[in-house]
Amino acid sequence: MTDPDGTAGITVALLAGPDATASTLYGMYDILGAAGRDWALLMHGQAGQPLITPWIVSRDGLGFRTANGAWIEPHAALTELPSPRAVCVPELFVAPQASLAGYDAESAWLRRCHAQGALLAAACTGALLFAEAGLLDDQDATTHWAYCDALSRRFPRVLVHAHRSLVVSGEGQRLIMAGGGTTWLDLALFLVARLVGVDEAMRLARINLIDWHHQGQQPYAALTCARQVEDASITQCQVWVAQHYDTHSPVAGMVAISGLTERSFKRRFKAATGMTPMEYLHTLRLEEAKQLLESGEAPIDEVAEEVGYADPSFFRRLFGRRVGLTPSQYRRRFRAMRLRLE
Asked: What is the pLDDT of residues 176-210, one digit of tens each?
């Protein structure tokens, strides 16, 4: 198949739905289109033959304005590209609980491409469309860390790995998903490695200074869940503990404020928030510890004490288990980032 510029290569369709964002869509377009072309240009002064032909496709092939205001001009409608070698769904700018019921045409096309043997890849929230299409039942998956809980609740048969930046699953390992943010770069390199070869993927990584997200999403995730509103009594406790998480026995304090028996309180708290009161307390403390580590230079033991942990060793173990980095590693990475931004 010949691409819009007249060259031939492995056909990869980039699905542009109404909630697409331009950065991921065109970023992947650039990386995939560079395979076989850019290294020769840099080394020998003349562009090589492109090895991958990226096509931007949409339901009707007509131009549209994305959720973030950019204009997208697709190359073709879905019906004009019936059998691509691979399909990629870039991120979708939707709320975690949003329904994708309006994507019936795209879902049917994805199922058809998968049945024909195509490799299917999703960046960030694009995995939600895979789930909506029924492609992830009983399969390993990942998506942006802020959407993992919603994906698990809406599609309980999906095996969601919230901390992984890249998941490969399905029959023939033909379902590939990247987590949040810039992990679409990992996804693009992985696709190049699968479709063309590892050496070419490494060349593109060197050209574009791409650093693999080998530690996954966990260090970047905000641990605190949004406050629920259905149970007014539990909401009151959430407000209180957000200001008193560093005090002695804050769980007992929440029980007292709720006016419930301890058993009833724990049951209703878990039903409302999805966490036990102690898990919720640890979440608040660790999120505050992350902020302290990013913004200050206090010793780790002092940070532990400030957020309510009398045993620094316990704090270090818990932080490492929940965040994926030790407190010192977290500080080195994210304090330097904050200082550069400031």
From this structure: 988 877 788 888 888 898 898 877 887 888 788 77
Find, among 172, 174, 207, 175, the residue nearest to 189 by Cα.
Answer: 207
Say how far apart CA 120 and CA 137 lie, in whole Å.
15
pLDDT of residue 229: 62
Residue 89, classified by CB atoms within 10 Å of its CB into exposed (0-12), middle (13-18) or buried (19+), is buried
Q: Within 13 Å of residue 277, how many CA atoms lie on the same side as its CB?
A: 23
Q: Are 179 and 171 in contact (CB under 8 A)?
A: no
Element holding 58 (H helix, E strand): strand 52-58
Report residue 224's pLDDT band, with 50, 70 and 90 as the boundaries: low
Give yes or no for residue 70 having a pLDDT over 70: yes
**Per-residue CA distances from 234 to 240, 259, 260, 262 (Å):** 10, 10, 10, 13
Cβ pair 216, 163 in contact under 8 A: yes
Is the overall model pTM greater than 0.90, yes or no? no
As a whole number of angstroms, the distance between CA 271 and CA 328 comes to 35
Maximum CA extent, the chain: 76
Q: For residue 17, count CB atoms less than 10 angstroms from its CB and return exposed for 0-12, middle for 13-18, buried for 19 or more.
A: buried
How confident is the model at residue 226, as a pLDDT?
A: 57
**The two three-digit tokens of residue 25, written as one number:** 């869509």
| Cα 190 to chain centroid, rounded | 16
Q: Which helix (H) or strand (E) holds 122?
A: strand 119-123
Instruction: State which amino acid sits at residue 174.
Output: R
CA dihedral defined by 187, 188, 189, 192, rounded to 10 degrees?
A: 120
Q: For residue 93, what pLDDT band results from cuts at 50, 70 and 90?
A: confident
CA–CA distances in Å: residue 215 to residues 49, 64, 329? 34, 36, 12
The predicted structure's pLDDT at residue 2:
47
The predicted-structure confidence for 231-248, as pLDDT tens digits, reads as follows 888 988 988 988 888 888
